[in-house]
Protein backbone atom coordinates (compact mmCIF):
# COMPACT_ATOMS: atom_id res chain seq x y z
CA UNK A 1 0.00 0.00 0.00
CA UNK A 2 1.42 3.41 -0.97
CA UNK A 3 0.91 6.88 0.38
CA UNK A 4 -1.17 7.70 -2.70
CA UNK A 5 -3.72 4.97 -1.89
CA UNK A 6 -7.11 6.60 -1.22
CA UNK A 7 -7.97 6.81 2.46
CA UNK A 8 -11.21 4.90 2.01
CA UNK A 9 -9.27 1.80 0.86
CA UNK A 10 -6.87 1.93 3.79
CA UNK A 11 -9.27 2.36 6.67
CA UNK A 12 -11.68 -0.38 7.70
CA UNK A 13 -15.01 0.92 8.92
CA UNK A 14 -15.69 0.39 12.60
CA UNK A 15 -19.13 -1.13 13.27
CA UNK A 16 -21.38 1.08 15.40
CA UNK A 17 -21.77 0.10 19.07
CA UNK A 18 -24.27 -2.67 19.63
CA UNK A 19 -24.16 -3.91 16.02
CA UNK A 20 -22.29 -7.12 16.81
CA UNK A 21 -24.48 -10.13 17.34
CA UNK A 22 -24.39 -11.41 20.93
CA UNK A 23 -23.03 -14.86 21.59
CA UNK A 24 -25.72 -17.53 21.52
CA UNK A 25 -26.83 -19.05 24.82
CA UNK A 26 -24.89 -22.15 25.78
CA UNK A 27 -26.57 -25.49 25.16
CA UNK A 28 -26.30 -27.67 28.25
CA UNK A 29 -27.00 -31.35 27.72
CA UNK A 30 -28.53 -32.73 30.91
CA UNK A 31 -27.91 -36.46 31.27
CA UNK A 32 -29.26 -38.61 34.07
CA UNK A 33 -26.00 -40.37 34.91
CA UNK A 34 -25.27 -44.07 35.27
CA UNK A 35 -22.88 -46.47 36.95
CA UNK A 36 -22.41 -48.12 33.55
CA UNK A 37 -19.24 -46.55 32.07
CA UNK A 38 -20.71 -46.85 28.58
CA UNK A 39 -23.29 -44.20 29.45
CA UNK A 40 -20.74 -41.41 29.90
CA UNK A 41 -18.96 -42.44 26.70
CA UNK A 42 -22.28 -42.33 24.85
CA UNK A 43 -23.40 -38.89 26.03
CA UNK A 44 -19.92 -37.51 25.32
CA UNK A 45 -20.25 -38.83 21.76
CA UNK A 46 -23.67 -37.18 21.46
CA UNK A 47 -22.16 -33.94 22.75
CA UNK A 48 -19.53 -34.14 20.02
CA UNK A 49 -22.19 -34.73 17.34
CA UNK A 50 -24.14 -31.69 18.47
CA UNK A 51 -21.00 -29.56 18.29
CA UNK A 52 -20.25 -30.85 14.79
CA UNK A 53 -23.74 -29.97 13.59
CA UNK A 54 -23.65 -26.44 15.06
CA UNK A 55 -20.07 -25.11 15.01
CA UNK A 56 -19.61 -22.09 17.21
CA UNK A 57 -22.39 -23.00 19.62
CA UNK A 58 -21.13 -23.45 23.19
CA UNK A 59 -22.13 -26.99 24.21
CA UNK A 60 -21.69 -28.33 27.73
CA UNK A 61 -22.66 -31.48 29.61
CA UNK A 62 -24.02 -31.89 33.13
CA UNK A 63 -25.39 -34.91 35.01
CA UNK A 64 -28.22 -35.12 37.50
CA UNK A 65 -26.36 -37.77 39.49
CA UNK A 66 -23.72 -40.53 39.46
CA UNK A 67 -21.37 -39.02 36.84
CA UNK A 68 -19.21 -35.93 36.58
CA UNK A 69 -19.56 -33.20 35.66
CA UNK A 70 -22.64 -32.77 37.81
CA UNK A 71 -25.14 -30.23 36.53
CA UNK A 72 -24.59 -27.66 39.33
CA UNK A 73 -20.85 -27.63 38.57
CA UNK A 74 -21.48 -27.18 34.84
CA UNK A 75 -23.86 -24.29 35.49
CA UNK A 76 -21.51 -22.66 38.01
CA UNK A 77 -18.70 -22.73 35.45
CA UNK A 78 -20.88 -20.80 32.99
CA UNK A 79 -21.17 -17.90 35.42
CA UNK A 80 -23.71 -15.13 34.89
CA UNK A 81 -24.45 -15.98 31.29
CA UNK A 82 -27.31 -17.50 29.31
CA UNK A 83 -27.99 -21.16 28.76
CA UNK A 84 -30.64 -23.55 27.52
CA UNK A 85 -30.79 -26.86 29.37
CA UNK A 86 -31.83 -29.73 27.11
CA UNK A 87 -32.78 -32.85 29.11
CA UNK A 88 -31.53 -36.07 27.50
CA UNK A 89 -34.72 -37.66 28.78
CA UNK A 90 -37.46 -39.12 26.63
CA UNK A 91 -40.55 -37.89 28.42
CA UNK A 92 -41.81 -35.75 31.26
CA UNK A 93 -41.28 -36.88 34.82
CA UNK A 94 -39.81 -35.81 38.15
CA UNK A 95 -36.38 -34.94 36.77
CA UNK A 96 -37.81 -32.75 34.00
CA UNK A 97 -40.47 -31.10 36.17
CA UNK A 98 -38.59 -30.73 39.46
CA UNK A 99 -34.91 -31.60 39.61
CA UNK A 100 -33.63 -29.77 36.55
CA UNK A 101 -35.62 -26.53 37.02
CA UNK A 102 -34.63 -26.40 40.71
CA UNK A 103 -30.95 -26.86 39.92
CA UNK A 104 -31.18 -24.19 37.22
CA UNK A 105 -32.87 -21.76 39.62
CA UNK A 106 -30.07 -22.21 42.19
CA UNK A 107 -27.30 -21.44 39.66
CA UNK A 108 -25.95 -18.01 38.64
CA UNK A 109 -26.61 -18.81 34.98
CA UNK A 110 -29.73 -17.31 33.36
CA UNK A 111 -31.32 -20.50 32.13
CA UNK A 112 -34.37 -21.90 30.44
CA UNK A 113 -35.22 -25.59 30.41
CA UNK A 114 -36.18 -27.11 27.07
CA UNK A 115 -38.73 -29.86 26.59
CA UNK A 116 -37.51 -33.46 26.90
CA UNK A 117 -36.59 -35.25 23.69
CA UNK A 118 -39.87 -37.12 23.43
CA UNK A 119 -42.38 -37.40 22.10
CA UNK A 120 -41.29 -36.11 18.69
CA UNK A 121 -41.16 -37.48 15.12
CA UNK A 122 -37.37 -37.25 15.19
CA UNK A 123 -37.31 -39.55 18.21
CA UNK A 124 -39.46 -42.07 16.31
CA UNK A 125 -37.05 -41.74 13.38
CA UNK A 126 -34.09 -42.55 15.61
CA UNK A 127 -35.92 -45.53 17.15
CA UNK A 128 -36.73 -46.82 13.66
CA UNK A 129 -33.10 -46.43 12.60
CA UNK A 130 -31.84 -48.39 15.60
CA UNK A 131 -34.36 -51.17 14.93
CA UNK A 132 -33.22 -51.33 11.31
CA UNK A 133 -29.61 -51.64 12.46
CA UNK A 134 -30.61 -54.58 14.67
CA UNK A 135 -32.24 -56.48 11.81
CA UNK A 136 -35.73 -55.05 11.36
CA UNK A 137 -36.78 -55.92 7.78
CA UNK A 138 -37.10 -53.23 5.14
CA UNK A 139 -40.52 -54.55 4.12
CA UNK A 140 -43.18 -56.76 5.68
CA UNK A 141 -45.82 -58.66 3.73
CA UNK A 142 -49.37 -59.07 5.02
CA UNK A 143 -48.72 -62.34 6.78
CA UNK A 144 -45.64 -60.97 8.54
CA UNK A 145 -47.51 -57.87 9.70
CA UNK A 146 -50.13 -60.05 11.40
CA UNK A 147 -47.52 -61.82 13.53
CA UNK A 148 -45.02 -59.01 14.14
CA UNK A 149 -45.02 -56.29 16.80
CA UNK A 150 -42.70 -54.09 18.83
CA UNK A 151 -42.38 -53.49 22.56
CA UNK A 152 -41.15 -49.96 23.24
CA UNK A 153 -39.07 -50.45 26.38
CA UNK A 154 -38.60 -47.39 28.61
CA UNK A 155 -37.33 -46.80 32.13
CA UNK A 156 -40.71 -46.00 33.66
CA UNK A 157 -41.96 -43.32 36.05
CA UNK A 158 -44.76 -42.82 38.54
CA UNK A 159 -45.65 -39.56 36.80
CA UNK A 160 -48.63 -40.12 34.49
CA UNK A 161 -47.30 -37.51 32.05
CA UNK A 162 -44.28 -39.73 31.47
CA UNK A 163 -46.50 -42.65 30.44
CA UNK A 164 -48.50 -40.32 28.20
CA UNK A 165 -45.33 -39.25 26.41
CA UNK A 166 -44.11 -42.81 25.91
CA UNK A 167 -47.52 -43.80 24.51
CA UNK A 168 -47.30 -40.93 22.03
CA UNK A 169 -43.84 -42.05 21.00
CA UNK A 170 -45.18 -45.59 20.55
CA UNK A 171 -47.90 -44.28 18.24
CA UNK A 172 -45.39 -42.32 16.19
CA UNK A 173 -43.18 -45.40 15.83
CA UNK A 174 -46.16 -47.61 14.95
CA UNK A 175 -47.03 -45.18 12.18
CA UNK A 176 -43.56 -45.65 10.70
CA UNK A 177 -43.45 -49.45 11.08
CA UNK A 178 -47.02 -50.41 10.25
CA UNK A 179 -47.28 -52.86 13.18
CA UNK A 180 -48.48 -52.52 16.78
CA UNK A 181 -46.05 -50.87 19.20
CA UNK A 182 -46.77 -51.47 22.89
CA UNK A 183 -45.09 -49.36 25.60
CA UNK A 184 -43.55 -51.28 28.50
CA UNK A 185 -41.34 -50.36 31.40
CA UNK A 186 -38.34 -51.53 33.38
CA UNK A 187 -39.61 -50.11 36.69
CA UNK A 188 -42.17 -47.88 38.43
CA UNK A 189 -44.90 -48.39 35.80
CA UNK A 190 -46.83 -51.11 34.03
CA UNK A 191 -46.86 -53.17 31.95
CA UNK A 192 -43.41 -54.64 32.33
CA UNK A 193 -41.63 -55.90 29.23
CA UNK A 194 -42.38 -59.60 29.99
CA UNK A 195 -46.06 -58.79 30.56
CA UNK A 196 -46.29 -56.93 27.26
CA UNK A 197 -44.58 -59.78 25.45
CA UNK A 198 -47.01 -62.33 26.89
CA UNK A 199 -50.01 -60.21 25.90
CA UNK A 200 -48.74 -59.88 22.34
CA UNK A 201 -48.06 -63.61 22.09
CA UNK A 202 -51.59 -64.35 23.32
CA UNK A 203 -52.85 -62.23 20.43
CA UNK A 204 -50.81 -64.13 17.85
CA UNK A 205 -47.87 -61.73 17.73
CA UNK A 206 -44.94 -64.11 18.13
CA UNK A 207 -42.24 -62.17 16.27
CA UNK A 208 -41.68 -59.25 18.64
CA UNK A 209 -38.80 -56.79 18.66
CA UNK A 210 -37.80 -54.70 21.67
CA UNK A 211 -37.10 -51.07 20.79
CA UNK A 212 -34.78 -49.52 23.36
CA UNK A 213 -36.23 -46.16 24.40
CA UNK A 214 -33.13 -45.23 26.38
CA UNK A 215 -30.64 -42.48 25.66
CA UNK A 216 -27.61 -44.48 26.77
CA UNK A 217 -26.61 -47.98 27.89
CA UNK A 218 -27.31 -48.92 31.48
CA UNK A 219 -28.89 -51.52 33.74
CA UNK A 220 -32.47 -51.00 32.56
CA UNK A 221 -31.56 -50.93 28.88
CA UNK A 222 -29.55 -54.14 29.21
CA UNK A 223 -32.32 -55.83 31.21
CA UNK A 224 -35.02 -54.97 28.66
CA UNK A 225 -32.91 -56.04 25.68
CA UNK A 226 -32.20 -59.41 27.30
CA UNK A 227 -35.93 -60.15 27.38
CA UNK A 228 -36.43 -59.78 23.62
CA UNK A 229 -37.72 -62.96 21.95
CA UNK A 230 -36.48 -61.80 18.53
CA UNK A 231 -34.33 -58.69 18.04
CA UNK A 232 -33.53 -55.78 20.34
CA UNK A 233 -32.27 -52.40 19.23
CA UNK A 234 -29.40 -50.54 20.82
CA UNK A 235 -29.99 -47.44 22.96
CA UNK A 236 -30.47 -44.26 20.94
CA UNK A 237 -27.10 -42.87 21.97
CA UNK A 238 -25.19 -40.64 19.60
CA UNK A 239 -27.29 -41.28 16.51
CA UNK A 240 -27.20 -38.19 14.27
CA UNK A 241 -30.99 -37.87 14.46
CA UNK A 242 -30.68 -37.53 18.24
CA UNK A 243 -28.22 -34.66 17.78
CA UNK A 244 -30.68 -32.99 15.40
CA UNK A 245 -33.43 -33.45 17.98
CA UNK A 246 -31.29 -31.88 20.71
CA UNK A 247 -30.71 -28.82 18.52
CA UNK A 248 -34.40 -28.66 17.67
CA UNK A 249 -35.31 -28.55 21.37
CA UNK A 250 -32.65 -25.85 21.93
CA UNK A 251 -34.01 -23.70 19.08
CA UNK A 252 -37.58 -24.31 20.19
CA UNK A 253 -36.76 -23.14 23.70
CA UNK A 254 -35.18 -19.95 22.38
CA UNK A 255 -38.19 -19.15 20.22
CA UNK A 256 -40.93 -19.96 22.73
CA UNK A 257 -39.62 -19.82 26.26
CA UNK A 258 -36.55 -17.62 26.52
CA UNK A 259 -38.34 -14.35 27.25
CA UNK A 260 -40.05 -15.80 30.32
CA UNK A 261 -36.91 -17.52 31.61
CA UNK A 262 -34.47 -14.64 31.09
Automatic annotation (TrEMBL):
Region feature (Disordered): 1-24
Query: Any idea which UniProt keywords this protein has?
Result: Lyase, Metal-binding
Database matches in SUPFAM superfamilies = Chelatase (SSF53800)
Stretches of Pro residues bias are at 13-24
The record's CDD domains line, in alphabetical order, gives: CbiX_SirB_C (cd03414), CbiX_SirB_N (cd03416)
List the Pfam families.
CbiX
Gene3D superfamilies assigned to the protein according to its UniProt record, in alphabetical order: 3.40.50.1400
InterPro entries assigned to the protein according to its UniProt record, in alphabetical order: CbiX-like, Sirohydro_Cobaltochel/CbiX
Output the PANTHER family linked to this UniProt entry: FERROCHELATASE CHE1 (PTHR33542:SF5), SIROHYDROCHLORIN FERROCHELATASE, CHLOROPLASTIC (PTHR33542)
Name of the protein in question:
Sirohydrochlorin chelatase
Amino acid sequence: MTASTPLRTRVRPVPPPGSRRPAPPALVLVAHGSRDPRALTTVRALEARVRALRPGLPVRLGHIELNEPLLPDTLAALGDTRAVLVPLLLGRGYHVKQDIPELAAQAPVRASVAAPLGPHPLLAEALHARLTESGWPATLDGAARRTTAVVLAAAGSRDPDSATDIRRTARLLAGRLGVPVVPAYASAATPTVPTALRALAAGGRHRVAVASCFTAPGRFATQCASQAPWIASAPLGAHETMARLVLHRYDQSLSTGWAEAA
